[in-house]
Amino acid sequence: MNDAQAVVSIEGLSLDFMTLDGREQVLRDVNLHIHPGEIVGLVGESGCGKSATAKLLLGVLPMPPARITAGRVMMFGQDIGTMSWHAREALKRDIAYVPQDPMAALNPSFTIGEQMIDLIVWDHCGRTLGGYVRGRHKRVEVARARDKAAHLLEKVYIPDPMQVLQRYPVQLSGGMRQRVLLAMALSGTPRLMIADEPTTALDVTVQKRTLDLVKDLVSRENLAGLYITHDLGVARDICARTYVMYGGTTIESGPTGAMLNAPRHPYTRGLVNAQPSLAGGMPQGIPGRLPDYLAPPEGCRFAPRCSLRLAACEVAPAHRTHPSGRWVACWADVDEVETV
Amino acid sequence: MSAKVPFFELQDVSKVFPVKRRIEGRWMNRSEAAQVRAVNRVSLRIARGETLAIVGESGSGKSTLANVMSRVTAQSEGVMRLDGGEIPASSTVSSDFRRRVQMVFQDPSSSLNPRQTVEDIVSLPLRLGGMRHRGERRARVMELLESVQMSSDTMLRTPMSLSGGQKQRVNIARALALRPELLILDEPTSALDVSVQARILNLLATLRSQYGLTYVIITHDLGVVRAIADRIAVMYLGQVVETGTADEIMRRPRHPYTRALIAAIPVVHESDRVFIPDTQILDGETPSLLDPPAHCAFHSRCAFRVDACRTLPAPELLADAQGHGVRCHRVGTASLAGEPVTLP
After folding, report:
1. In terms of CA atoms, which chain A residue is nearest residue B265?
2. Which residues does chain A have within 8 Å of residue B275's beta carbon, measured at their own beta carbons?
3. Contact partners, residue A89, CB within 8 Å, separation at least 6
4. Does the distance separating the beta carbons of B267 and A278 come in below 8 Å?
5. pLDDT per residue over A235-268, tens digit each?
6. Which chain B residues have a beta carbon less than 8 Å from that of A176?
7. Kind of pairing, strands B101-104 and B325-326?
8. What is the rounded radius of gyration, in angstroms, for the C-alpha atoms of chain B?
9. Among B153, B324, B332, B339, which is disulfide-ready with B244 (CB 3.0 to 4.6 Å)?
């Protein structure tokens, strides 16, 4: 892995949250790399630290309760730990964020146009409140922003964009709202797209179309993408490489298809077996529940739920790299296990 | 399905909601009365011990149908029969029906009162069912919690302290309290993670064989359907467009909508790819229920549409000898062999 040209590279990241109950050790030993032009998946169940990782990259994680205790996060070749606030703000222009729930992300009281123009003016007037307040009342500025908004909507194949700009979010269907959010995400000068489960609220047929659109946009706009999902099928469809997270650590990574066909980590295998097959038959669940982040297990965080637990699991497993770009963090991943 | 009386039967059941529609293009906005036919002449027969899955996209009327079946709302037209006995269309039904048909709602957290303990929640139907003695109720609650594989010490906890899967177990326990015969489950696993979903599905299968339950499962996830259902009814715009055994529909979907629905499933297992029919993804939006298409409801989005679909009146649900019914002009009863027939 050549880190010099990676868009995002997270190495050995540990993140704690200081709460009233104590120190919650949420992320530990997260390793993730995104190279230009690829969509990388991040899968795992709810509460696995997927969104915390995304928020850290976006720079919206409030840093007093959260604290990086170890590791390094590089974005576009810069270490975000040592970056100034202003540099961090400027960096946000390069990140396109697609949120999860299109209804919650759009304000129901304002038209699509007003919300998009707000965003574009804010971006164009230097991302400061003063600049925004001055720019929002200038006719030239607003007209320019409206043209840009229509152009952005055209990019996501919304027919009749000028008409859509005058509508309220409730007047659009779920798929349309999600496309409006994709358009809004492109309003800066994005180089990286972070999508946090953008299709979970959609029907399968709409989801399929949205996924195709995301793929299309990423290749047209020459973006790198981090696609967070809990749906392994979606990850298989859209992501070239996928990272699996459990209990705040990345446990396995590799080309999505190969990894889902022959998962090596017991948790990944559990996830794949829990997915109902179209051929019929009952899926199998994973017993137990997520670790308590206030007192996570020492060593491997999956060990208390793992059927292949060894004595070695008391110590955090090292990453073992396999050929073909896969790695797995599990002590039990030896040849005997592979044949299972 | 012959002369034998089916356990639960719906005959041409419709649900119509009166709504107000805005008339645009005047100098003042006016409104006119309109009708939304959320469920449109649905006929279903469910045998005892069978599991029927109702699938469809949001807005297809599947949740309204579930509400009608469990009598949360009354149907506007049509007849519903349980064990041959007709259920009156008035909003009040006998407590006997309420006891025999129970519902599990979609969102496990919002269907439990956060101020009550699990014991209060599960024992409420018992109290309403006439179980006066508190100790008796407590014993039954413990029995119910055990049958949904929860420890009896959760009885004193509030829903807030339970995980999503546990909440859904409490919901199921409450529905089972009065020993129902028919359980209507509205998206029982859609709010859960896959590993929890798998465990809830296993639980539902265990309970089905243990108590001889009949299930109606409303879902949009065809994988879930495959795991638990015997028969499927596919809904589109309030109508059943295809019905048949789960195996038959997954292997040989005939209606173009069912094919598109299956084609959109993101596959996880490589071996599942054989089930994905080679068809194009659905284009366009679902038509509004306020003015549904006059002819075949699906013709505006259908990939196999011909002129006949736009001129003939809406097709009927025609079933073959095995009970596999399709509502499509292009799939005639004579040629229910598999692929939609290509007309010359």
Report:
1. A204
2. 278-279
3. A59, A127
4. yes
5. 999 999 999 999 889 999 999 998 998 888 889 9
6. 285
7. unpaired
8. 22
9. B324
Listing DSSP states for B80-140 in one string gives: EEETTEEEPSSS---HHHHHHEEEE-S-TTTTS-TTS-HHHHHHHHHHHTT---HHHHHHH
For chain A, what percent of residues have pLDDT higher than 90? 26
CATH of domain B8-229: 3.40.50.300
Give B85's contacts (C-beta < 8 A, 6+ positions apart). none
A261 with B270: Cβ contact below 8 A: yes
CA distances from residue B173 to A305, B141, B165, B200, B201 in whole angstroms, order as listed: 26, 8, 12, 12, 14
ipTM of the predicted structure? 0.83
Q: What's the burial of A127, exposed, middle or buried (CB within 10 Å: 0-12/13-18/19+)?
A: middle
DSSP letter, residue B9: E
Domain residue ranges in chain B: 8-229, 255-344
Q: Which two tokens stand for residue B234?
A: 């596919």
Tell me if A282 and B271 make a contact (CB, 8 A cut-off): no
Instruction: Check CB contact of B320 with chain A, cutoff 8 Å.
Output: no
Please give the single-letter amino acid code of residue B147. S
3-state secondary structure at position A4: helix
CB-based contact B223 A277, cutoff 8 Å: yes
Whether B226 and A212 lie within 8 Å, measured CB to CB: no
Structure tokens at A153: 């909507």
Alpha carbon distance A162, A169 (integer Å): 14
Residue in chain A lying closest to B248 (CA): A279
Mean pLDDT of B121-140: 90
Contacts of B228 in chain A (CB under 8 A): 282
Query: What residues 156-215 of chain B have any CB closer than 8 A to a CB of chain A?
Result: 163, 193-199, 201-202, 205
CB < 8 Å from B in window 86-115 of A: none
What's the full length of chain A, in residues? 340
CB A335 within 8 A of CB A251: no
Q: Are the Cβ atoms of B266 and A207 closer than 8 angstroms?
A: yes
- The rounded distance, in Å, linking the Cα atoms of A225 and A193 is 5
Q: pLDDT digit string (tens) for A114-152? A: 999 999 998 888 888 888 888 888 899 999 999 999 999
**Nearest C-alpha in A relative to B223:** A276
Q: Are B260 and B87 in contact (CB under 8 A)?
A: no
Phi, psi dihedral angles at B214 (to 5 degrees): -110, 130
Choose among B148, B154, B144, B168: nearest CA to B117.
Answer: B154
Looking at the complex, report in whole angstroms how far the Cα of residue A175 sits from the nearest Cα belonging to chain B: 9
Residue B164 identity: G
CB atoms within 10 A of CB A87: 11
User: Quick check: B184 and B69 in contact, CB under 8 A?
Assistant: yes
Question: If you count residue pairs, one on A and one on B, with CB atoms under 8 Å apart, how many are there?
Answer: 132
CATH superfamily, region A101-188: P-loop containing nucleotide triphosphate hydrolases (3.40.50.300)
Say yes or no: A170 contacts chain B, CB-CB below 8 A. Answer: no
CA distance A173 to chain B (A): 8
- In Å, the largest CA–CA distance within chain A is 70
Total-model pTM: 0.86
Q: Output b/e per residue, B62-97; b: 16+ Cβ within 10 A.
A: bbbbbbbbbbeebbbebebbbeeeebeeeeebeeeb
Closest Cβ–Cβ partner in A278, A282, A287 for B272 = A278
